[in-house]
């Protein structure tokens, strides 16, 4: 595999790679571009910008946005939904870190 094809493969596997335009991202989670902008304004999402200034979202960000939408549909206020999703994401990351450390200790 060439170095270039390896880089492309890594981007496909990278859940944080900003691969989706705002329109496509909104379509994927069944929301509007305005909804995504509101999550940017609330501080939940910080999408990268293309050279032309357009927002680009990652799969990870889309999962967070979809979870907020789910909570909103259940009647949770936007600020509370964003806080819940942030805490859930932090907990998931902590669990992954612990699992990685346990794996390193068992393997070494």
Automatic annotation (TrEMBL):
Top-level division of the source organism's lineage: Bacteria
Signal peptide span: none
Pfam families in UniProt: MerR_1
Keyword entries, A-Z: Coiled coil, DNA-binding
InterPro entries membership: DNA-bd_dom_put_sf (IPR009061), MerR-type_HTH_dom (IPR000551), MerR_fam (IPR047057)
Coiled-coil region: 77-104
SUPFAM superfamilies (UniProt xref): Putative DNA-binding domain
Residue ranges occupied by any HTH merR-type domain in the UniProt entry: 19-87
Keyword NAD: no
Name of protein: MerR family transcriptional regulator
Lineage, opening ranks: Bacteria, Bacillati, Actinomycetota, Actinomycetes, Pseudonocardiales
């Amino acid at each position: 595999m060439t170095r270039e094809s390896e880089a492309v493969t890594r981007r496909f596997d990278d859940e944080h790679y900003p691969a989706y335009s705002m329109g496509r991202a909104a379509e994927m989670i069944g929301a509007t571009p305005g909804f995504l902008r509101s999550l940017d304004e609330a501080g939940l999402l910080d999408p990268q910008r293309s050279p032309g200034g357009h927002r680009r979202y990652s799969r990870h960000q889309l999962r967070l946005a979809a979870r907020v939408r789910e909570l909103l549909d259940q009647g949770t206020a936007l600020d509370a939904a964003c806080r819940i999703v942030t805490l859930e994401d932090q907990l998931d990351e902590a669990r992954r870190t612990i699992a990685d450390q346990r794996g390193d200790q068992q393997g070494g």
